[in-house]
Design goal:
Strand content: 15-25%
Strand order of the largest sheet: 1-2-4-3-5-6-12-13
Distance between the termini: 44 Å
Order of helices and strands: EEEHEHEHEEEHEEHEHEHEHHH
Helix content: 25-40%
CATH topology of the largest domain: Rossmann fold
CATH superfamily of the largest domain: Alpha/Beta hydrolase fold, catalytic domain
Number of helices: 10
Shape: globular
CATH architecture of the largest domain: 3-Layer(aba) Sandwich
Number of strands: 13
Number of domains: 2
Radius of gyration: 19 Å
Largest sheet: 8 strands, mixed
């Protein structure tokens, strides 16, 4: 079910896949949206209730004043409050969503009982060759869907082709004039700002939480080198590791492997109350 809530007059859209199972908050990667977890929700079945927001500036959610971790985390907490989920929940995140998930667990340990990090590194530095350079040439809107796809170029069209949005009648309209048209599922400048806000060292946040965690890693990922992945699992207690053959986009390259890894981890949490999961994760004094 598609729904939304208001946060400071800003819309946050989300998909609640429903069911009576335990809640799983799923945070998508950059330039994506909550619908990316449709397959995962189906694979988990009725045992888990997958709740997937369109994070700020993505999908049907409004643009935000900034894209720092604090804002993303505050949105996630607001969504949990909106849904009345006061007990700790399991949080899964991929890429940008994985970074946001680990910061959520660090800042609000009382709201997170387990964590699934999918190929999100804790060391983010400017790349020598900027893979995201194509964003600088993207237009946000165009009069027709075809023109917007053409303007996006091969890489951009591959990323956003299935997620373009029609502009509503009477909206500010296209960059070439008012009226109806089509828009990207994100504003290019927002993505550049979000990427820049990710830069830095996130080790403290990764090590701050003690709940059970799983790191799913694309073994050929340029975003998460093997030595960093190994250190993340070694240095953080109560953390398991599942390597999958693929690069940073491994959840889409090997969806069945991804679903299976998540299912196995979640199965290990079954029968354990949220309080016991949290207690079990606390280090001994």
């Amino acid at each position: 079910m598609r729904s939304e809530l208001k946060i400071d007059d800003r819309t946050l859209a989300y998909t609640d896949f429903g069911g009576t199972g335990r809640p799983l908050l799923a945070l998508h990667g950059g330039m994506s949206e909550g619908a990316a977890f449709t397959g995962l929700a189906a694979a988990l079945g009725e045992e888990w209730r997958v709740i997937a927001p369109d994070q700020r500036g993505h999908g049907d959610s409004d643009r935000a004043p900034d894209y720092r971790r604090e804002g993303y985390v505050a949105d996630a907490v607001a969504l949990l409050d909106h849904l009345g989920l006061q007990e700790p929940v399991t949080v899964l995140g991929y890429s940008l969503g994985g970074l946001n998930a680990l910061h959520l667990a660090a800042a609000h340990p009382d709201r997170v009982c387990a964590l699934v990090n999918t190929d999100a590194t804790v060391q983010i530095h400017p790349a020598e060759s900027d893979w995201f350079a194509f964003l600088r040439g993207l237009v946000y809107t165009a009069p027709t869907r075809e023109e917007l796809l053409e303007a996006a170029g091969p890489l951009g069209a591959q990323i956003v082709g299935q997620a373009l949005r029609p502009l509503a009648e009477g909206s500010p309209g296209t960059e070439s004039g008012g009226g109806t048209g089509w828009r990207l599922p994100f504003h290019p400048q927002d993505q550049l700002d979000s990427i820049e806000a990710c830069r830095g060292d996130h080790w403290d946040a990764w090590l701050a939480s003690t709940c059970p965690a799983l790191l799913i890693h694309g073994t050929r990922s340029a975003a998460l080198p093997q030595e960093v992945a190994t250190a993340m699992v070694t240095r953080r207690p109560n953390t398991s590791y599942t390597p999958l053959e693929g690069d940073h986009f491994v959840p889409f390259q090997d969806p069945e492997g991804f679903y299976d890894a998540v299912r196995k981890f979640l199965a290990g949490l079954e029968g354990v109350s949220a309080d016991r999961v949290t207690d079990r994760a606390r280090p001994e004094r």
